[in-house]
Amino acid sequence: AAGAPAPGANPLAFGFYDTPETPQPVELEITGTIPSWVHGSLYRGAQAGWDAGNYTAEHWFDGFSRNHKFEIANGKVTYRSRNSADELHDFVQETGRYPGSSFAGDPCKVILGAFQSTFRDGVKSAGNKTSRTVQVSFVKNFPGLDHNSTNFGPLFTLTATTDSNVMNQIDTVTLEPIELFTYQATSRDYNDTSLTCAHPAIGSDGQLFNYVLDVQNGPPTYKIFGINGGKGSVLATITGVPPVYIHTLFSTENYLILNLWQAVLGKTKSGKESYNLVDKIQPWNATQPSLMYVIDKKGGGVVARYAGPTFFAFHEINTFESNGDIYMDMPTFDSHDWTLQGLRLAKLRTVPNENANIDLPSVFTRFKLPNIAGGKAADGTIITQKATIDFQMSRKDGNLEVPRINEKYQHKDYRYAYGIHLEKPGHFADSIVKIDIQSKSSKVWLPSTDHLVSEPVFIPRPGCDDEDDGVLLVTALCAQSKLSKLVVLDAKTMTEVGRAGLPVVMGYGFHGLW
């Protein structure tokens, strides 16, 4: 059947096929111990599936969205999940075509004009609920949103984000989709067709920052903006630079950094219009420097610009200021191959496979942006300074992605980063790494049987000062049991202390929020 693993498929691949929804909470079976002080909710995004009727998505990023929730209290764990793109799924199942743009969809499977989504966007006062797939990351307490959830729900809002200008507010209790909306709902300065990033920057005061990239109305234009209390305002406008696929807006306590790395968008090889992002990403150009624009969060405006080495990245680990310089930490790639080809669904469904180019290649890299105050000439024009790689770790020790830290240390000098990691070739991501930035060494949790692991979410132990005193919550598909688990790791020792067994396989997804 479409969406089901092929006979004989390795259980590690099950997370890349359609999996069942669990709309009502179920209590999970515990092995080991879940520390009693771990008390709260873990929300995770992971796909419901990639198949609908005779349609199959091409790329991991193009699945139908589902949200998941683990409620942890008194050493017990309950789990539930809810689809959030049912209208879209039903349309694709009926037609065999995907309506509009995607990350890497087959152009032959696109249909235009037959299926319309409505977003609350400042022009329209209400939006659909499930007509788009919105599944990359989450924002807690998006500025200006009502606390719209089931009675007695937690006093915060939950918003799912992606790399296009559409978000979905999610009920924090039932996970039901509430409404699709766009950044244009906060200001008419940002049109609905703009590109944006799934990881906005969140200030210590709750203000949200992001950018929109308009490539349809004249030369490519970036607008970097802040949202406070539901109202957006443009902080800087940048033109005269290439349009780039950017997944994360970096930030320090005082600045935003727009990284124009090696993912330039342009015409397709055939010159024809494409409705997917991958076809527009231009071939790797090793001679093209990356550009970094530094924007003042409070006063607005570009205050410094840097040119640096050629690289690509998805995610920020941490960025901070020190003695007038900025240090940016991120997992970097030295080609597009893994992103554009290695993450094709057909390849991931063959895991483990040493010949499929699916192995995680990114490594820990620290960039230095020196002398922020020297960014302007005497006449006030911005000069281009040089950004350098302060250090880069080896593939053995520094291989990581979907990185997390103890969030108490966001925007500060810090010591530890955590992420998914690869130990065994062909296994995509089979372990969790803890990187010690001071000693440039690492410690790895590699389970004794094959697991496919996801982003580790750090939970600090209450009342403790050590940066690594806490646990990591990791959802993982266990090949032996052919089911998913919520694994709890001691972040100090990187050893497992307990796990909760799900009755189902969770689709393999991206990010979580505690």
How does the SSE layout of this entry go?
Blueprint: E1 26-27, E2 29-32, E3 40-46, E4 51-52, E5 55-56, E6 66-73, E7 76-83, H1 86-95, E8 98-99, E9 110-111, E10 137-140, E11 158-161, E12 167-170, E13 177-181, E14 201-202, E15 208-214, E16 221-228, E17 231-238, E18 250-251, E19 255-260, E20 290-296, E21 302-308, E22 312-313, E23 318-322, E24 325-333, H2 337-342, H3 345-348, E25 363-369, E26 384-386, E27 388-392, H4 395-398, E28 401-404, E29 416-421, E30 431-436, E31 441-445, E32 451-453, E33 457-460, E34 470-478, E35 483-490, E36 495-501, E37 509-513
Parallel strand pairs: 8-9, 21-26
Antiparallel strand pairs: 1-7, 2-36, 3-6, 3-37, 4-5, 6-7, 10-11, 11-12, 12-13, 14-15, 15-16, 16-17, 18-19, 19-20, 20-21, 22-24, 23-24, 24-25, 25-27, 28-29, 29-30, 30-31, 32-34, 33-34, 34-35, 35-36
List its traits.
metal-binding, 5-stranded antiparallel β-sheet, Carotenoid_Oase, mainly beta, 514 residues, carotenoid dioxygenase activity, 6-stranded antiparallel β-sheet
